[in-house]
Amino acid sequence: MAAAQRIVIENCAIATVDADDTEYASGHVVLAGNRIESLGAGRAPEGLDNVVRRIDASGHLVTPGLINTHHHFYQWITRGLATDHNLFDWLVALYPVWARIDEPMVRAAAQGSLAMMARGGVTTAMDHHYVFPHGSGDLSGAIIGAARDMGVRFTLARGSMDRSEKDGGLPPDFAVETLDGALAATEETVRQHHDSSFDAMTQVAVAPCSPFSVSTELLRDGAQLARRLGVRLHTHGSETVEEEKFCHELFGMGPTDYFESTGWLGEDVWMAHCVHMNDSDIAAFARTRTGVAHCPSSNARLAAGIARVPDMLAAGVPVGLGVDGTASNESGELHTELRNALLINRLGAHREAALNARQALRLGTYGGAQVLGRAAETGSLEPGKLADLVLWKLDTLAHASIADPVTALVFGAAAPVTASFVDGRQIVADGRLLTADEDAIARSTRDEAQRLARIAAQG
């Protein structure tokens, strides 16, 4: 690291989100190559070699980069549809449209989703992609390529579905894969793209979609595949009361017991939503260290309910935040989920004691790193960790009169991002992407959305 090029950031408030929640009212961060070399109160040490840039970050809060733990990028081109539906009705309305996606659509949608998150402070993203229509092209490659070009650290949760309408599931028959086909394609994606190194920019997880769209065999065999390959597992769980009823009727047990029976609880697993969890479910997640991706805006959009996040945290369940697909969270931003997680959870049983500002920030940073299995590398600002961090501008009209910077970030309006670094490389400056043309992405997503709408109307 002594020979690495250094970037020095000074005169900023810092929220490290380390184990002690260390904060500095005015401090510095030194980046060396793709790592955080040092940080602390006051100015950076004198005499540092090979300093290529100094940033005066007066009026800013520096935090770890935000980490998104659940998303469906392809939905960027079906935003604003089925706006008054619950989950099952929404899926029935949209599956026939989604089943017509192809590689150019998915590439454009991934670019749109990634761009919106990156310009809002996300440094690690994930995508749960589970719709693979026959003849649609290399969808996984398109998504991974978009993340690579954007410069965002990325996990692709390679999804799958094999329970269609004829089997009692929700997806159309032509929108699913076979059991063997899904497993083979998932394994190939892992072998081709997964990087297990400390500073990996691309990782892959095994991710059958949900209990109502995959067979028991796909869940069980998928878990075995993931553990044989040494990668993580992801799926949807306990999102709605309808899902719970579905599991009881089909399997004779609730979602958590069903998942446990198929090998789907463990420290290498995280599930999206987990809204309808009883005390026994939460205890099982805590005992097995199964993670949760909390998606407050999507849960509200689909009237799914309020997840028991304070109870999960108290029990020791790892919890991160998720945007979820933009067909159920049209804003597509994660930094607004900090505020929404705090506010929505205060509508639950714990009321004003549910979450505070620092707990919300932890959900969006270190909690997300835990859920993705990357807490040793990112999620907090500590020497030796990856240089993934964000400079939030808090001295404008929107925030200047709020004394505490973490409170300003979480409770206030969405804060402007002056700079975002991933792996030591700056990807955002003054709220604009440095790695992509936002206007060109806007045009391509509009064009692909219109093309998909035409094809779906003809189908």
Automatic annotation (TrEMBL):
NCBIfam families, per the entry: PRK08203.1 (NF006055)
Q: Which SUPFAM superfamilies match?
A: Composite domain of metallo-dependent hydrolases, Metallo-dependent hydrolases
Could you tell me what this protein is called? 8-oxoguanine deaminase
Q: Does the keyword Metal-binding apply?
A: yes
Source species = Streptomyces swartbergensis
**Domain of life per record:** Bacteria
Print the organism lineage.
Bacteria, Bacillati, Actinomycetota, Actinomycetes, Kitasatosporales
PANTHER family for the chain: AMIDOHYDROLASE-RELATED DOMAIN-CONTAINING PROTEIN, AMINOHYDROLASE SSNA-RELATED
- Where's the Amidohydrolase-related domain? 61-425
Entry keywords, A to Z: Hydrolase, Metal-binding, Zinc
The GO terms describing molecular function are: deaminase activity; hydrolase activity, acting on carbon-nitrogen (but not peptide) bonds, in cyclic amidines; metal ion binding
